[in-house]
Write a structure and sequence with these properties.
Helices cover about 45% and strands about 15% of the residues. It contains 22 helices and 13 strands. It comes from Eleusine coracana subsp. coracana.
């Protein structure tokens, strides 16, 4: 069994002490973080649970401790992690936390289904887990911006502090990368796009490395199926796909090449109240008002435009039906105030023209989403087209006992139980009216919001915690290593 999460107080205070002292220290830290919530941070992992931090970032578990981890067999293994990028856009705004999203595995010949999301962020989580059991971990970023970036700098040094060798200052296409790939016991490619790294870097060594590659794929849009990206996919030791829905889509798109084969988060009510009050005050939202939030990078695919249309319609429904409900507000977390896109400009124009500018709030993109989860009443996951590959923010909202209004598409259908932990609506324009009705429904029934939030919280505890992830990913890694070793012997 994996080591259970530390309590909130223990993670912050670094050990035992009086409850009064721990609570005071926790509140001070949370208030400080909330006051600078738009900066890059790791609130959930840093303030709520990070056993590495409590004992020194680079410290691995002792032999006895590692023996209790399902990943203990990875001790002393050399693992090379190849990430396509390390950026805020790639991180999709979600914080490093101790939540992992992994209820089940579909185990075909070489296609594994793992419920994980967050691109580079999730790969970082795996790197930290492997370091804790004594693995040697090397990270290479294939695509790196030449511009100075505080987010990238922060993430790089977070990994370095955990003992992860970050080869970002070395050429990702240099001899060091080739040597690391050839020496590694396991190579993990992160994202389909990372497939472009193989041929130009490994060249003649590609056949040698393929049998020990585990390919972690997060994408499901059509252009990611280009042959230049995935031509080697049938020959790697295994592939991890973020949800059953995504796996089925990949299987159908590549049928000729693939074989079918928190809970300490938000439990401190005093800390949550402090964050709630601070964020609501900054937005001009009263405590008794109801706040609906969409927390994603602002883009058409995430559906902020359709959410705002539905929010506007919900206000009209309330007025037409003369319903007595608290004042409703909407917050869009994930804007880029320094470089507004045409799409975001359209969002803001709609808000002004509709006369709802006093009810809608735009917040700049941030890794520290915990304060906003503490402040809101309902999360809206409105990803369009095929939906969200899985959606880490959905899990985190459920950990905060929030009901979720999500599109009935993609991996969201595997997280949200319609009518139990939230309500689903169709993607596209046809989903606007149903979403508006669902907003009114939850605004009108406080007891239903509470009940759905509690059921979502219970679902997270039962299916989506770190020990679930560690056990299931251990099974995948064991099989990949077994195949790799078998190939080497042959």
């Amino acid at each position: 069994m994996a080591k259970p999460p530390l309590s909130v107080a223990a993670a912050v205070a670094g050990g035992r002490g009086s409850a009064h002292h721990r609570n005071r220290l926790l509140l001070l830290i949370l208030v400080a973080v909330a006051a600078s919530a738009s900066t890059a941070g790791f609130l959930l992992r840093g303030a709520l649970r990070d056993p590495c931090d409590a004992r020194g970032d680079s410290a691995a578990l002792t032999g006895a401790e590692a023996a209790g981890s399902p990943l203990e067999f990875m001790r002393s293994k050399l693992v090379l992690l190849v990430s396509h990028e390390l950026s805020l856009s790639g991180l999709d705004l979600n914080p490093v936390s101790h939540l992992f999203i992994l209820p089940c595995i579909v185990k075909p010949i070489n296609l594994y289904t793992l419920f994980l999301a967050g691109g580079p962020l999730l790969l970082m989580e795996l790197a930290f887990l492997l370091r804790r059991v004594g693995s040697q971990v090397v990270w290479i970023t294939n695509q790196r911006s030449e511009e100075t970036n505080d987010i990238t700098y922060s993430l790089e040094h977070k990994m370095l502090n955990h003992g992860v060798q970050v080869q970002m200052v070395l050429p990702a296409r240099g001899q060091e990368a080739v040597d690391a790939a050839r020496k590694a016991d396991l190579v993990i490619l992160n994202t389909a796009v990372a497939g472009k790294w193989l041929d130009p870097v490994l060249k003649d060594h590609v056949p040698e490395v393929l049998p020990k590659i585990l390919w972690w794929i997060h994408e499901m849009r059509g252009h990611y199926f280009k042959l230049e990206y995935v031509k080697h996919l049938p020959f790697v030791a295994g592939a991890m796909i973020d949800s059953h829905t995504t796996a089925e889509y990949w299987k159908s798109r590549t049928s000729d090449r693939l074989n079918k084969e928190l809970m300490e988060v938000a439990e401190d009510s005093v800390a949550r109240r402090v964050l709630r009050e601070h964020i609501r005050e900054s937005l001009g939202v009263r405590n008794e008002d109801i706040l609906f939030a969409i927390i994603n990078s602002v883009s058409r695919g995430k559906g902020q435009d359709l959410f705002l249309q539905a929010f506007y319609q919900s206000l009209q429904l309330i007025q037409q039906q003369k319903l007595k409900v608290p004042v409703l507000h909407a917050v869009v977390v994930g804007s880029d105030l320094n470089a507004q896109t045409k799409f975001e400009t359209q969002l803001r124009d709609f808000v002004v023209k509709s006369g709802i500018h006093a009810r809608v709030h735009f917040v700049n993109k941030t890794l520290a989403v915990a304060p906003y989860l503490a402040a809101i009443d309902v999360l809206v996951q409105n990803s369009q087209a095929r939906g969200e590959c899985f959606g880490r923010i959905t899990i985190e909202a459920m950990a905060f006992k929030l009901p979720v209004l999500g599109t009935a598409a993609g991996g969201t259908t595997e997280i949200v139980v319609d009518g139990s932990t939230g309500l689903l609506h169709p993607a596209g324009k046809e989903g606007v009216a149903p979403l508006a009705k669902n907003i009114v429904r939850l605004a009108s029934h406080a007891e239903q919001r509470v009940a759905m939030g509690k059921k979502g919280y219970d679902r997270v505890k039962e299916m989506f915690m770190e020990h679930h992830m560690a056990g299931r990913i251990a099974a995948v890694l064991k099989e990949v290593l077994k195949k790799s070793q078998g190939h080497s012997h042959s």
